[in-house]
Amino acid sequence: MIDTDSLRKFAGRNWKVAEQDTASSSAARRLGDDDLLRRAHLLWLHIKAVRPDWPDAASRAEDLDHHIQFQALIVRANRAPFGI
Predict the structure, then answer these.
(1) How far apart, in whole angstroms, are the C-alpha atoms of residue 63 and residue 54?
(2) Total domains in the fold of the chain
(3) Pick from 14, 33, 73, 83: CA 20 to 30 A from residue 50's CA?
């Protein structure tokens, strides 16, 4: 059985934002892995130039905590039945 409230929320979502997200994902696929890695490396070089102390131990711990929480959400979502 489909959750009608979820269906209404989906139908009423901001489709312009969804289109922009899709366009962004499509652009990323067109760029390819090598170009995406190059761009990520350029961003890393920039932040290291601006903040040589980044990331500090506290930032790394916070980042790891967020990754662990996100992974738990993914596992939970995979176990959820359709429509919930």
Answers:
(1) 12
(2) 2
(3) 33
Looking at the structure, tell me whether residues 40 and 64 fall in a common domain: no
pTM of structure: 0.47
Tally of residues, the chain: 84
Rounded CA separation 76/46 (Å):
36
Q: In the numeric block, which tokens belong to residue 53?
A: 């102390």
| Domain enclosing residue 74, as ranges | 54-84
The answer to whether 6 and 83 have CB atoms below 8 angstroms apart is yes
pLDDT digits (tens, 9 = 90+) for 25-59: 776 677 788 888 898 999 999 999 999 999 999 99
- Per-residue pLDDT, 1: 59
CA–CA gap between residue 6 and residue 12 (Å, rounded): 10
